[in-house]
Amino acid sequence: RAMELPPSHFPAARAAAVALGYLRYLRGGPGRGLELRELRRARRQDISDVGHKYCLELELEDVLDKDRTVSCTAEVLYHLGSKASAPDVQVTVQGELRSTEEADKEFYNWIRSLEKELVAENIPDSQGNVPPELEPIHLLAWVASGYVIWQNSSENTKLHLAQVKHVKQVKRSDEDLQFDYVVLLHDMVSQEVLPWQVTLLWHPQRGARVSQCHAPGAGN
């Protein structure tokens, strides 16, 4: 059975945060920042013995290109009872996202040309400012935290990236760029703010992937 939810309904907004995190991980990068402009429609389906599935219609914007919006449908399935497994997410973007090929190449070459590995902290700063040259690093933190949000959300959380506490570029012998992040994730439900360590690999052709992430207090 499916039930329409008002888009302002908390569970709908929580499922939308998961879908956005997943999409940022999948399609974000140093030249693209996806933001939720509007949650248009939400339905919840209870699948017996499996879990709760949310079907969402979203409108997204790219923070670097605010005039253009794209529509997106998403399904977020939270598994019953199991805290350990991430929600299953499927997203379909209707329409084209702006190409970031040029910006990606420029950023990649800039990082590769640095004498010393890039290190930065507190992005944005206490005034909410991000220095222009660190904007791509900030957007890559959206990608990294998108993965963490997708993997660690439940029906009772709404995680969002509060700040990059620290980021350090690590030189590699292959073509990938590596950034070791400490990100602060704020759970809007419990009001907890927790630091996560996330290692992100990125390459203009291959996109992003998280190679490791540790929760606070997890000894792995």
From TrEMBL:
<dbReference type="InterPro" id="IPR046350">
    <property type="entry name" value="Cystatin_sf"/>
</dbReference>
<dbReference type="Pfam" id="PF06907">
    <property type="entry name" value="LXN"/>
</dbReference>
<dbReference type="GO" id="GO:0005615">
    <property type="term" value="C:extracellular space"/>
</dbReference>
<dbReference type="GO" id="GO:0008191">
    <property type="term" value="F:metalloendopeptidase inhibitor activity"/>
</dbReference>
<comment type="similarity">
    <text>Belongs to the protease inhibitor I47 (latexin) family.</text>
</comment>
<keyword id="KW-0677">Repeat</keyword>
<feature type="domain" description="Cystatin LXN-type">
    <location>
        <begin position="1"/>
        <end position="102"/>
    </location>
</feature>
<protein>
    <submittedName>
        <fullName>LXN protein</fullName>
    </submittedName>
</protein>
<feature type="domain" description="Cystatin LXN-type">
    <location>
        <begin position="119"/>
        <end position="220"/>
    </location>
</feature>
<dbReference type="InterPro" id="IPR009684">
    <property type="entry name" value="Latexin"/>
</dbReference>
<keyword id="KW-0646">Protease inhibitor</keyword>
<dbReference type="InterPro" id="IPR049897">
    <property type="entry name" value="CYSTATIN_LXN"/>
</dbReference>
